[in-house]
Amino acid sequence: MRITVVGTGYVGLVSGVCYAKLGHDVMCVDKDPGKIRILNEGGVPIYEPGLRELIAEVRQAGSLSFGTDLPNAVRRSELIILAVGTPPLPNGEANLAYIDHAALEVAEAMNDRKIIAVKSTVPVGTNERLAGLMRSRSAVAFDSISLPEFLREGSAIHDTLHPDRIIIGADSEEAANKMLELHEPLTDRIIVTDIRSAEMIKYASNAFLATKISFINEIANICEKVGADVSQVAEGMGCDRRIGPSFLQAGIGYGGSCFPKDTNALIQIAGHVNYEFKLLRSVVEVNQDQRFSVIRKLNAIFGGELEGLNVAVWGLAFKPNTDDVRDTPALEIIGRLLDAGAKVRAYDPVALDNFRTLLGREGVTWCGDAMEAAQGTDALCLLTDWPEFAGVDLSRLQAAMARPVLIDGRNVFQEKELLGTGFVYYSVGRPSLN
Ligand code: NAD
Asked: Any keyword NAD (predicted)?
């Protein structure tokens, strides 16, 4: 199939590459010429494990190309996939300006019947609205498909090639069948729905996962007060097949470009039909507060006096294996530390440059490795569970720090590893050592 993917970000690039891997003829277009130049020179503008190698492989095979010429790409394609960003507006609603613009550009370029599939996460009813917009610009017939994306950054290629399910929201049987054919090599769990239900499945899935995270974080907070261990609690809960073990890791809460934005957007979607989504509002509130548990613990240890304190921060990305810093908890935590007059030494294996740009303020020493960040500090806050942190030599770490205070925001270490070491150790929902 000849496919154009519009938007070459985390979703568009990975999807485009994976469709090419399946043998389709894919053109990835982006309005950002800088991104396209990097890709055409053999580079990759984002960090995603395995992506560089897979791009090289499919380009070698001649099934993937990159460009900025959207009209040309559209004319040569049977399927156009929209994967542009839908970032949050200040009121929590999804900003649909990019997808509206992309849809209009596609409409103006269409020369014969196309399938238009929306992979971007968009509020219920958006596909219908986009179709109306496109019809106002073009007399060429097309079929609309809602094709929500469920990949996780950090394991995006695996998730795309081995998805738990594919959801195809369609209003035409013919287009639905073509999409079924396209995705059949990936999984036998393909569900065809109406378009509005497909749009809702995406929001409901993310909202449910966010709910699991906030739920276990509240259980963790109670565990801290009653002397229980949330890791054991989560293991015990997760064995129940009705509950399942995933998304029950207590920590400093979710971040990233999806859960915060999609939970807020769903609250707005509900609000527009006069439904107050009370449960989801609480999920968001709990998540916001959970970030600051790190600050509360530091305050408890240092008697509320953080001024002049030297604090190491390990991990800036919102989760491991990505350089994405959109809505990462580290941003607000470091902001609070700086506001309180602390000095911060920060390290992340791949997200440091992106984070530095995002933070946009002075007061942080950017470090090239974890030990350098810990050097001479009074406390260390671990905010992202990058695997390299778990393997750190604790006696070296202790020797590097001025005071061995470890706030483990992701429960990376086990209490038994730290027993007798002299570390003051606080994790989330587990007994502290002090
Ligand atoms: P992104 O910001 O990384 O990429 C979007 C790209 O679209 C950018 O490169 C931008 O330049 C390009 N773009 C915008 N307007 C364009 C236009 N008119 N023509 C061509 N290119 C254009 O975004 P992302 O993280 O890939 O997310 C894309 C969508 O997928 C969002 O709706 C998001 O909610 C959803 N989603 C994201 C993830 C994820 O993990 N990142 C997972 C599932 C779903």
From this structure: yes
